[in-house]
Design goal:
Structural class: alpha+beta
Strand order of the largest sheet: 4-8-9-14-13-12-11-10
Largest sheet: 8 strands, mixed
Bound molecules: adenosine-5'-[phenylalaninyl-phosphate], magnesium ion
Strand content: 25-35%
Shape: globular
Radius of gyration: 24 Å
Helix content: 25-40%
Number of strands: 19
Length: 444
């Protein structure tokens, strides 16, 4: 891996540690600077300069930004909850995965899916990474909003950084705790009955979505019901009236069974918007070992994780996820803190497609996320999407056994000015040369 010197810095200590020699051999600098701190690199290091540059931005705390208004709107619906929004994105794989019972071979742990500073430190891939820590501090009802990072493809609804709000509630696992939940369920059900919302539900428990061995099924039913009522009422608060949800045309919400390693039963929620079901959150009854890890074994409860961009794209009619990162005054000046307004698109510049066709060295593969990160490091937000150009171009030569790939990159500026063909060519030339250096490919 070769990265620009501004971010990666070699530190020459006394003597030459073996890690230093290993990094030299891999053409990898010894240290990386993240949020002003230096960290040693190793074979897992894959955090890129583009990603590092996003870490200080915290869009969900920037006044007037749609993500900040949405965070405040969600918080206002849970006034008695603790509201957290300043936890560091750097977590250990132990926090992000192990404390939540992710199996050792879960694909989310791989360097193709997650960003690692080194083997012991990574960027959180979800806000659930903080569950054990926050429960361990004694919080019983809380919301936590934060930036999360995942290596992913590039298109209009996928960006390697997005924002989530985690919400959780735990109560004592005794009759007093269950009474508290039952009373809340009655209150929420009465409120929802009077509202225009059409809910497609699934049973709280099923053979594929079972109760935990440590739980009384009656308690699980009450907790799952409280989770569903709390979230249905949040959906109504967020979407009701705003996106044309009226008595004649009620808001449609659909519950689906899901699986998460640290909840069971588990669910996902989709909202019907402009003719499509949109997945906006995952949730469930917290797996008891997660609460044991937080030293609150005498409690039980629920947790959810909402995707803020997905919801904001619906509420504000924002068509492209890159726009959230725009510094263009034509974007930013459209929004005021606390107000949900319809985004007015400004002139869209023409797309500029460039193909990159190459042979991989024999036996070598190239993960699409590695290719996308390389392109983003060079072209930044000027790249709108990256697609495998055609299946024909993804083939293995019968004689040489070498694999050939062709990606089509769409360069298009979403900000300030049109991108000239010369500029797109120059970016594409840099992509090609970086691809040659980093992956030893042969350009076709
Ligand atoms: C999670 O991240 C779980 N941590 C949610 C959870 C929390 C489950 C607590 C149980 C208990 P998932 O990967 O499905 O789950 O992401 C949650 C939401 O984040 C999705 O529903 C979606 O709205 C949003 N999301 C996921 N991936 C992306 C992406 N690449 N771009 C934008 N939003 C995304
Ligand atoms: Mg999901």
């Amino acid at each position: 891996m070769r990265l620009p010197g501004s971010l990666w810095r070699n530190i020459h200590g006394r003597g030459v540690p073996s890690r230093y020699l290993a990094n030299m051999a891999a053409n990898r600098p010894c240290h990386v600077t993240v949020l002003g701190e230096e960290y040693p690199t190793d074979h897992m290091t894959n955090i890129s300069p583009t990603i590092v540059s996003k870490l200080p931005l915290k869009l969900h705390t920037q006044p007037s930004h749609p993500l900040s208004t949405l965070r405040a709107l969600i918080e206002s619906h849970f006034p008695s909850y603790a509201h957290l929004s300043s936890l560091s994105p750097l977590v250990t794989p132990y926090q992000n995965f192990d404390l939540l019972s992710f199996p050792a071979d879960h694909p989310g742990r791989s360097v193709t899916d997650s960003y690692y500073v080194n083997k012991d430190l990574m960027l959180r891939t979800h806000t659930s990474a903080h569950e054990v820590e926050v429960f361990g501090r004694g919080e019983t009802k809380w919301l936590l909003t934060a930036d999360v990072y995942r290596r992913d493809e590039i298109d209009g609804s996928h960006y390697p950084v997005f924002h989530q709000t985690e919400g959780a509630r735990i109560v004592s696992a005794n009759s007093a705790g269950m009474k508290e939940i039952e009373e809340d369920n009655e209150r929420l059900a009465a409120h929802l009955e009077r509202s225009s919302i059409e809910i497609e539900d699934v049973p709280h428990l099923s053979p594929m979505n079972p109760c935990q061995p440590a739980h009384d099924p009656k308690h699980t039913e009450l907790i799952a019901k409280n989770l569903k009522l709390s979230l249905n009422s949040l959906m109504l608060h967020l979407f009701g009236g705003r996106v044309g949800a009226t008595a004649q045309n009620p808001l449609k919400v659909r519950w689906i069974e899901a699986t998460f390693p640290w909840t069971t039963p588990s669910f996902e929620v989709e909202v019907f918007f402009r003719g499509k079901w949109l997945e906006i959150l995952g949730c469930g009854v917290i797996y008891q070992p997660t609460l044991d890890n937080a030293n609150v074994s005498d409690k039980l409860g629920w947790a959810f994780g909402l995707g803020l961009e997905r919801i904001a794209m619906v509420l504000y009619s924002i068509p492209d996820i890159r726009l959230f990162w725009s510094q263009d005054p034509r974007f930013l000046s459209q929004f005021k803190q606390g107000e949900i307004t319809t985004f007015k698109p400004y002139s869209k510049y023409p797309a500029c497609f460039k193909d990159v066709s190459f042979w991989l060295p024999e036996g070598q593969t190239l993960h699409e996320n590695d290719f996308c990160d390389l392109v983003r490091d060079i072209a930044g937000d000027v790249v709108e999407d990256v697609k495998l150009a055609s299946l024909i171009d993804d083939f293995t030569h019968p004689k040489t056994n070498r694999k050939s790939l062709c990606y089509r990159i769409n360069y298009r500026s979403m900000d300030s000015r049109s991108l000239s063909n010369d500029e797109a060519n120059s970016l594409n030339t840099q992509v090609v040369s970086c691809l040659r250096d980093r992956f030893r490919v042969v350009i076709r």
